[in-house]
Amino acid sequence: QAVPAGSHVRLNLQTGEREAKLPDRENGESDTREERRRKRYRHARHWVGWAVDVDANSFTSEELKKALAKMKESEKAERKVSFLFLKQCTEEVRKKFRPIEQLKEEFEKLNMKIETDYEIMVKLISKFNSSASTLDEKVAALYDLEYYVHQV
């Protein structure tokens, strides 16, 4: 829950709850407990967007039900918007790019072999671990591997 700027916030170690206190008035006088309580409810209701009587001392069950329903509605709307945005982005990416399998097939037709960075790194590690490799080949494999690992 958001709190107004300048509020005093603390963690009650006995109850484990977070508590917020509105700042004192400018003339140095502290609000009475009841005034602080009303302000806290008024601010909390404003932040959550409840349309309720701000001078009430407590929330009615109807007010809580309405607020919960509004929160659920807004959450559903946010999820729907997020899903639609993600779906649109995925479709745009698919229009711009082709799958790697399709690219590999097309390059094979041109007698070219395309390898992913992962495939190249596996080959370099195999070359380094091979007992048939010379010292120069192992050093070259390490340099090349360093390049690919740095990209990752």
TrEMBL record:
Basic and acidic residues: bias regions: 16-35
Record carries keyword Lipoprotein: no
GO cellular component terms, semicolon-separated: endoplasmic reticulum
Single GO BP term: protein transport
InterPro entries per the UniProt record, alphabetical: Hsp70_NEF-Inhibitors
Keywords: Coiled coil, Endoplasmic reticulum, Protein transport, Transport
Region annotation (Disordered) ranges: 1-37
Keyword Acyltransferase: no
Superkingdom of the source species: Eukaryota
GO MF term (any one): adenyl-nucleotide exchange factor activity
Signal peptide coordinates: none
Coiled-coil annotated residue ranges, if any: 57-120
PANTHER family: NUCLEOTIDE EXCHANGE FACTOR SIL1, PROTEIN FOLDING REGULATOR
Protein name: SIL1 factor
